[in-house]
Amino acid sequence: MTATTHRQGWGKALRPTEKVLPEHARAHHRSMVLQHLFHAGPRSRADLARATGLTRVTVSDLVGALVTEGLVTELGARQEGKVGKPASLVALDTSAFQIVAVDLADDERMHGAVLDLAGAVVERRSATHDGRTGQAAVDALLAFCQELAAAATRPLLGVGVGSPGVIDAHGTVVEAPNRGWFDVPLAATLSDALGVPVHVANDANTAVLGEFTFGGASGSLLVLTVGEGVGAGIVLDGALVQGARHAAGELGHVTAVDERDDVEHAPLGPAQPCACGRRGCLETVLAVPALRRRIAGLDPAAADAALASVGHRLGIVLAPVISALNLSEVVFSGPAELLDGPLRDAALAAVRERTMPVISSDLELRMTSLGEDGALSGAAVLVLSGQLGVT
Amino acid sequence: MTATTHRQGWGKALRPTEKVLPEHARAHHRSMVLQHLFHAGPRSRADLARATGLTRVTVSDLVGALVTEGLVTELGARQEGKVGKPASLVALDTSAFQIVAVDLADDERMHGAVLDLAGAVVERRSATHDGRTGQAAVDALLAFCQELAAAATRPLLGVGVGSPGVIDAHGTVVEAPNRGWFDVPLAATLSDALGVPVHVANDANTAVLGEFTFGGASGSLLVLTVGEGVGAGIVLDGALVQGARHAAGELGHVTAVDERDDVEHAPLGPAQPCACGRRGCLETVLAVPALRRRIAGLDPAAADAALASVGHRLGIVLAPVISALNLSEVVFSGPAELLDGPLRDAALAAVRERTMPVISSDLELRMTSLGEDGALSGAAVLVLSGQLGVT
DNA sequence: TTTGTTAGTAGACCTTCCTTACAAATCACA
DNA sequence: TGTGATTTGTAAGGAAGGTCTACTAACAAA
Q: Is the Cβ–Cβ distance between A95 and A122 less than 8 Å?
C-alpha cells in the first residue's frame, strides 16, 4: 500500500533537477570504469564488473568502446596462478591524452604545464603577467595556453585553469580584482579559441580537488592555501562546495584578531589593517608576507613562539568550521618552513582544545602531499573530472 | 580527437559509485514530476514536460502511473482563455497518504503527529519518556509510533523520526547518550515492527530539512537549534551535510568563551564548565537554560544587553562557518522571546563585522518560519524525501 | 468557416542493460 | 593424463524506458 521506495540518503544531491537519459547512464558507467582503472590500476573486465556492480557483458562493451577511443589498452593475461580462465588485464593509458594546466595564483608569473592523465608533469613553462589586466590578460593567458598546447606531444584532453577570484561552475570569472576581470566568461572564451574543452575554477578549489584526487584523501577535506593571501577549498562527501555566491572558502578575511587583543602584551599585537579595508583579518597574520615580517630578526625560539601564536589563532578560526562540517582532514598548502612546525602544532592544539573529542580525535591536520604542483595537479583534475568523470 | 564531454560542475556529487539502471532513471523522473507538483501546485502534463525537460509523452506516462497509485489526481480542464486546446490539470493528492512524524528532541516527552503530504498536522499526540533508556526506550518509541499509526486515517507513506545524537545515513543511532542508545539500528528495527518505511535522522538535521522544504529556503542554509542544547543542521547545494563521522552540525560544543574572557568585567563572565567536560562551550551561554539564568532578575535593558553579549559571541563562532561555506541563509530555531531580538541583532552585527561584505551583504539571519512544528515537519520531510524523492 | 496553436496519445524506433548460454583456458585431483 | 570445476570473456535475445513522428481533440482569432 505504500508508494515506491527510494533509497535512504540525504547527502547525495536530491532536489532532482535534470532528466536522465540512457546516454547519461552510459556516460556514468563509463566514468565508473575509468575511475576504477584510474585509482586501482590495471584490472580485468570481470574485476571491473564486480567493482561497479555491472555485468561482465556490459563492462566488456564499455571497455571495448574505451579501447577504441584509445583511453584504455589491453595488457595481456594476468600471471597469477588461480583456477579458471586467466584474466586479461586492461589499463588506463595515461599517455593517450595530455592535459594543459595553468596556475594563475602568483601575481607575477603564470605557471603552466603539460601533464599526462596520471597527473605527471611532462613539460613545464611559465610567463610573466607584466601587469596586464582585463582583455589583455585574457589574451596573454590564451597565448600561454597555445604555447603549452603546442608543446603537447599527444592529443589534448582539455585545458584546466586555476585562478584567484570568484568563479562560477561554468568557468565564468565573476570577479578577480588582481586581473581586472569582472564577469569574464573565461572558460567559454578560451574553449572557443583553443578548440578544446576548458575548465576554470578558483585556485583554492583546484588545490582541494588536486589533494582530493592525488593526495589520498577521504571523502571530505579542507585545503587551506597560504600564499600572498589566504584561501580555502572544501570538498564534502566528494563534492566541491560552491557557496551561494560561488565564494565558498573565503577564510582569509574572517576576523582573527579582534578588540579583545587590543591589550598590552597581546601575543599577536593589535589588529592590523587589511587590504580588504577592515582590520584583523586572518590574512593579516597568516599570509606569507605577514609571517615573514613577524619572524624577521627573531631568534629561533622566539620565531617558533610567534608562529605558534599565529597557529593558535588559526585554530580558533578553524574550530567552528571543522566542528560544523565534522571534517576529518585539513590540509595546509604553502611554504612548509613557515607552516609545518609550531604553527601547525599550535593550530591543531587549539582545534582540539576548542572542539569535542568526537570531532577532533580523528582529525588529521597535515601539509599537502603535492608540494608546489598542487595547483597544477588540481587544474588537471578539473579536466579529468569534466571530460572523463574521473576524480 | 578529444574524448566524450561531460558537463561541467563539481558541486554535484561526482566520484561515481552506483550504477544507474533504467528503473532508477524512471524513479528519478517520477520524483521530478512529484517535486514540481509539490512545490508549484497543480499543473498540466505539458507544463510538467516543459519544467522537467521530458517529452509530453513521457510525462503522460509517468502521470498515468502516479494517478493509478493514487498519488496524483485529475482536476479537470484549466479555465484560462488561451489559444489551443485547454490543459487538463493534475495535482498531488496530499491526502492520499499520511506520514507519522516523531520528535525526540525533548528530554521529557516524545512529540508526534500524523501529517498529510503537504506537511499539515492532522493529529497530534505526545507521551512521556519516563526516563526509559536502551531497549525500553526503543519499545516505548515503537508503541508510540503504533499509536500514531493507528490514528492515521489514510494509508501510511512512512514514519520519520528526529532524534538527538549521532545518526548515520541508514538510520542507525551511532550514539545518543540521552536515551542510552549506542549502535542501535533504529530505522531497521522500527520498520520491521511497523511494516512501513522508517527514516531516522538527527533532530538538527530534520530541522534543516524541514526549513529547506517548507521554509522557502534557497539551496544552502544552516539551521541552529537552541533548546536544552545547541545543535546545527546544514544543507549545501540541496544536500544534507553528514560529516566524516555523521557528526556534522556539532556547534554546541565549540568554545565560545575562552581564556581571553577570564578578565574582570568580561561581558559574559569567565568560561563556565560544560556537561561535555570542557569549559566555555557555546552551549554554556546559548542553551535556553543558560539564557534564562543569565537574564533572570535583570531589568529589560540589562537583559537585552546580556542577550546581545551572547549574540555577539555566537556571531564570532558563526562567522568562520558562514564565510567558509558562503551561506546566504542562517535560521534560528528556538524560543523567539530569547533569540529573536537583541541576540539575533548582535549575532548578525558580529558576523557582518567579521566577514567580507561579499559574504555577509546578502546574508539573511532569521527565525524559523515553522515555529514549534519545525522538527515534526522535518521528520515528515525525511519520509517525503526517502519515499517520493520530494524535498 | 478556416487557420493556427496547444494538449494529449499511439506506434515505431533507439539505446542500454540484463539474462541466459556457451566457448576457452586454466587448475585440481584422481 | 584425463576429467571436472572454475573463471573469463562474448554472443544472442529480451525487457525497460525514452524519443521522434504523426495523429486527433479542442479551442481562439480572423
A: no
